[in-house]
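Quick question, first post here. What does this chain look like in 3D?
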Amino acid sequence: MLKTKVLYVEDEPFLGKIVKESLESRLFDVQMIADGAKVMATFQAFQPDIAILDIMLPNVDGYTLAESLRRLSPTLPIIFLTAKTQTDDVLQGFQSGGNDYIRKPFSMEELIVRIHNLLSMVRSTPSVFDPFTIGKFQFTPQKYELRNGDIAKKLSARETDLLKILCENRNFTVERKEILLKIWGDDSFFNSRNLDVYITKLRDYLKDDPSVQIMTVKGVGYFFTVE
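> Answer (accepted):
Ran it through. Tokens below.
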């Protein structure tokens, strides 16, 4: 059986050793790097299934690495490990291409669950499919692209995941909890506030076509429709 390959970037030796050995004990193939400047060369040679990135790293930070990895591999799942707690820091992680984040300190059980969740989402997605047509827009999830004629808007990984869920449930109400669990892995208050931010962003991106509506169903979730 082929092992899942994990690119793990962490500059704290003690934590890194614990996480690496714990993942290997669960049959993951782990390539650990402590220097951000050495990540891209290792990525090309290793071709990981998932990347786990610390944010504060020597030479090249995690945000910059995520952007570079995302350009090379649009579907690569990326998890941030961070000691940062400010909303802006977390949002920056999502905007740079991250799919999930875990605050330090964390449990190995939580990390492994999040790894499996992200991998299952990627593996259940067809490798090739036509764009979604949303009124005058064309939305191509695998390119992280929302196109209006000749104008293409690049979306973050989180924006892409959210818009894809809405498109797949067009003309149906999607519960907030369902969205939060699918994208963030839990329905905490903090993640709920993040969802509000992303819904506002998507509404702004789609405002050029009034027929496209993301309606809030109070106390339940969202209803996505194209009139």
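The two ends are 49 Å apart (CA to CA).
DSSP finds eight helices and twelve strands in the chain.
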